């Protein structure tokens, strides 16, 4: 029963994220090849093409790349918000004991890379890039773990997943506090008021995905025009989705038995359609099923495939196409800074904080995780692809000449981190004995 309730869903989650990492890699390669091919100009023209609504009294348009980064990525952040809420309420972050291990690792994985970036940075114009090496790309990192196979203990996957979620919380806070524009307090207050309405009706036990969608779109626009990055709206909207079911399992089973008997005793037509009595029974079944489902779990399950298999690859396709030739002036210092912050900063930060916390007995590391595996995962934490590129686009919005350099640094740093992490974990984990 425990395996069915906990282990199996986690394994399905890892499988989805792992395949997403593969798609992410494919999309990145396509973007780089396209941008540096004879058709490179078409790549830039497509993603800079303005799309929007233009009328006599209203005009709102954005380049295609911003619809991806500000629009589709809001859905990505919405899903992150759902995952964070689930983990905080009933998952791996719902007790002090559970959260301590990944929290300590995540803190080290944020503090040391940021400190190293600021220490190495000598250019006042690139100092805003300090947030780039903070977050870990969960899709890529779990994909690497999945390649290693069954020899990786489940507790290590749980640590990496929880670690990346804590990282995401830190990255979201950084985006909200440091990478948003000048504030329009009136519009922000209206947005917060609408969020308050959603939280209130959720607290009262009412949930409608249509209400949330309509208010969510309004809140997205209000955040955008208020000067807060609209992806933050995705996170805040997610916390309005209830996690609790309206009825428990025993109540559902009772009604399921009643509906079963009613369907069994209802009139069966000769034609290949349902009778009115059968239709009523089916509607009753749908109503009770909707009450039995957790709204958060159901929404998270529905969105996971779209985000993993469509939104994240599209984001990579739109953002990873950096032109690499002699005509492009790269800031070598920025590239090296980001590479070192991702590789050295992440690995040293995660490992040192975890070992120190273990030594002073603040945390307890699971017995099936050894020191070499912690070091290996700390290098995987340096795969900052999706969130790192996203933060880079925000950090250098006023200095776009540094964006390509930042992306090159992220790609190199993430690639080297992946290779080192994979190699260490490959030799640090024993192959499980084959069943006789």
From TrEMBL:
The keyword Cell membrane applies. The keyword GTP-binding does not apply. One of its GO terms (cellular component) is plasma membrane. The chain crosses the membrane at residues 21-40, 60-80, 100-120, 158-179, 186-206, 212-239, 303-322, 334-356, 377-396, 408-425. Keywords: Antiport, Cell membrane, Ion transport, Membrane, Sodium, Sodium transport, Transmembrane, Transmembrane helix, Transport. It catalyses: Na(+)(in) + 2 H(+)(out) = Na(+)(out) + 2 H(+)(in). It is found in: Cell inner membrane; Cell membrane. It is a multi-pass membrane protein. GO terms for molecular function: sodium:proton antiporter activity. Belongs to the NhaA Na(+)/H(+) (TC 2.A.33) antiporter family. This is Na(+)/H(+) antiporter NhaA. It comes from Gelidibacter maritimus.
